Automatic annotation (TrEMBL):
PROSITE patterns: DOMON (PS50836). It is found in: Membrane. Belongs to the copper type II ascorbate-dependent monooxygenase family. InterPro entries: Cu2_ascorb_mOase-like_C (IPR014784), Cu2_ascorb_mOase_N (IPR000323), Cu2_ascorb_mOase_N_sf (IPR036939), Cu2_monoox_C (IPR024548), DBH-like (IPR000945), DOH_DOMON (IPR045266), DOMON_domain (IPR005018), PHM/PNGase_F_dom_sf (IPR008977). Residues 1-18 form the signal peptide. It is a single-pass type I membrane protein. Residues 34-149 form the DOMON domain. This is DBH-like monooxygenase protein 2 homolog isoform X1. Its cofactor is Cu(2+). Keywords: Copper, Disulfide bond, Glycoprotein, Membrane, Monooxygenase, Oxidoreductase, Signal.
């Protein structure tokens, strides 16, 4: 009955800092300026979690749990100290509009105070609420969102809002090395072309480091949030020996730089590795070059816009236990002939990564890979992304699931527990798209109006595998559709009169045809394979307890 004891303690006795620390031992700063601070504690036995939100404002304050860092699907509480007393309510959001009051108020206010220019709100709820309008808290990281106003008139929060990913039930504060050394890989006053989509690539020489180091934190350096869609930093092979800057995917120096070192997408935050792992940099007996790729999304096609965005990489000479690697898995971006039909409310696409072929390009035996984090990536039509792990033809787990994918809120999903990929396992990336408002087919490609279906898998120990993609065998698709003209299949799909029945047939056929896969690494080694998409299990539902106290409350 921890929450009952805590409520009585707050109501009838002065609460010292030490007492609150015992009840709420965990602390996180939710914003960079430390204006929004959160304390919390929980009881597994009683299935309760208590929060204390402190914000530097004398207006209203809001706090929520979000599936993706945005408003849609978020579970929110809003409160404050007004002229007529305290106010506090439980809300849920269905979109980017003012949230709706929950029919069942699942959060209980314990105290609300205003002093020294700041508001402190303390409240509790069940960890597993049975209210369908509430967010189920699990031992996986959750996106915490906050917002506040200068007055008690609850309205649009403008810039006084934000999000931070925290594992509430398995919180592990990280301590960074004291040196704080970093490298900046950024554009230099680049003039963004007046084009809807433009990829700019800049090859840079890394300063010489004395021996091997570990990179442990990546911070985005974003100068124009309305232009920068995503960024990738690649290390270059020995063949690249000069700096260069040009449009990506047009050849030239740096075209062979494809080993992913860091990645950021719109809505993402800084990413920090656990204290036992780091991405190796430096220590080579030759110059090291890196290629920064930025996807610019200039919707208004403005002229004269300049940008100096990029990434800041923190590193240390205090080597960690594991070298980290990144594998980019999913549907091949350049899948010729692949088409997502229009007017589809939920069209599923699949990419297959067959790890049994890793050994084809590796000289050493393939170890078990420990997955610690994943970034999921689609473009504007993406609504859901799931990454299934299969062993001996049977799904044993999900590596990641986002049932409320938000194009504007793309960030790493830190896993609650390390998940193991064993040699021979299959990884299936499933993306669900909504094209209900589109009139023509959507193809795979680089523009935001095209689509992608990718999962960037962060794991250790690092092996020399960078990409593991697949695409449906379009020759087989042509035959299954009863056609013989392979080259004309795209034009057929473009002019097809789509309805829900034909969309379902198209999805099923794309899933049924054999997949042609490719595995490659930074040394231009690659292998091809063929496989089939296996059926995924349903996303596990979260159980709840209607009465966590056991007292009939």
């Amino acid at each position: 009955m921890i929450h009952i004891f805590f409520s009585l303690l707050l109501a009838w006795t002065p609460v010292t800092g030490a007492q609150q620390d015992i009840l709420m031992p965990f602390v996180a700063h939710l914003d960079p300026k430390n204006n929004v601070n959160l304390k919390w504690g929980f009881s597994d036995v009683q299935d309760t979690i208590t929060f204390q939100l402190t914000v530097k404002t004398t207006g209203w304050v809001g706090f929520g749990l979000s599936p993706n860092g945005g408003m849609a699907g978020a579970d929110i509480v809003i409160g404050g100290v007004g002229r007529d007393g305290n106010y506090f309510k439980d809300y849920h959001a269905t979109g980017n509009s003012f949230p709706l009051v929950d029919k069942k108020q699942s959060y209980t206010l314990l105290s609300l105070t205003e002093a020294d220019g700041q508001t402190t709100m303390t409240f509790w709820r069940s960890i597993q609420s049975c209210d369908q309008e509430d967010f189920h808290i699990t031992d996986s990281p959750v996106k915490l969102i906050y917002a506040y106003g200068k007055t008690d008139g609850i309205g649009y929060h403008s810039s006084t809002r934000g999000t931070k990913e925290v594992n509430l039930l398995k919180f592990m504060p990280r301590s960074s090395p004291r040196d704080g050394n970093y490298l900046d890989f950024v554009m230099d006053n680049f003039i963004v072309p007046a084009e809807h989509t433009y990829y700019n690539c800049k090859v840079m020489k890394m300063p010489k480091l004395n021996g091997k180091h570990h990179m442990y934190r990546v911070e985005p350096v974003i100068k124009n949030l309305d232009l920068v869609h995503h960024m990738l930093l690649y290390s270059c092979p020995l063949s690249v020996i000069q700096i260069n800057e040009q449009q990506c995917y047009t050849g030239g120096p740096g075209a062979d730089c494809f080993k992913v070192v860091a990645v950021w997408a719109v809505g993402g935050l800084a990413f920090e590795l656990p204290e036992n792992a780091g991405i190796p940099i430096g220590g080579q007996n030759h110059d090291e070059f890196y290629r920064l790729e930025i996807h610019y999304n200039n919707l208004a096609q403005e002229t004269g816009r300049r940008d100096s965005s990029g990434m800041r990489l923190y590193y240390t000479d205090q080597l960690r236990q594991h070298d980290v690697g990144i594998i980019d898995a999913g549907l091949m971006v350049s899948s010729w002939g692949y088409a997502i039909p229009p007017t589809a409310s939920a069209f599923r696409s699949y990419g297959l990564c067959n790890t049994s072929h890793f050994s084809d390009i590796l000289p050493d035996p393939v170890p078990d890979l420990s997955v610690i984090s994943i970034l999921l990536h689609t473009h504007l039509a993406g609504r859901k992304v799931r990454v299934g792990l299969f062993r001996n033809g049977t799904q044993i787990d999900f590596l990641a699931v986002d049932e409320n994918y938000n194009f504007e809120m793309q960030g790493f999903i830190n896993l609650a527990t390390i998940k193991t990929i064993k040699p021979g396992d299959d990884i299936v990336v499933e993306c669900t798209y909504n094209t209900a408002t589109r009139e023509g087919i959507t193809q795979l490609g680089l523009a935001t109006t095209d689509e992608m279906c990718l999962a960037f898998i962060i794991y250790y120990p690092a092996i020399s595998v960078d990409h593991c993609w697949s695409q449906p065998n379009m020759h087989a698709y042509t035959a299954m559709m009863g056609k013989t003209d392979y080259q004309g299949i795209v034009e057929l799909l473009k002019t097809k009169a789509w309805d829900q029945a034909s969309i379902a047939v198209h999805e099923a056929t794309m899933k049924k045809v054999p997949q042609i896969g490719v595995i490659s690494n930074e040394h231009n080694n690659y292998t091809l394979y063929e496989g089939n998409i296996l059926n995924m299990m349903a996303t596990p539902s979260v159980s709840c307890r209607s009465d966590p106290t056991g007292l009939g409350l």
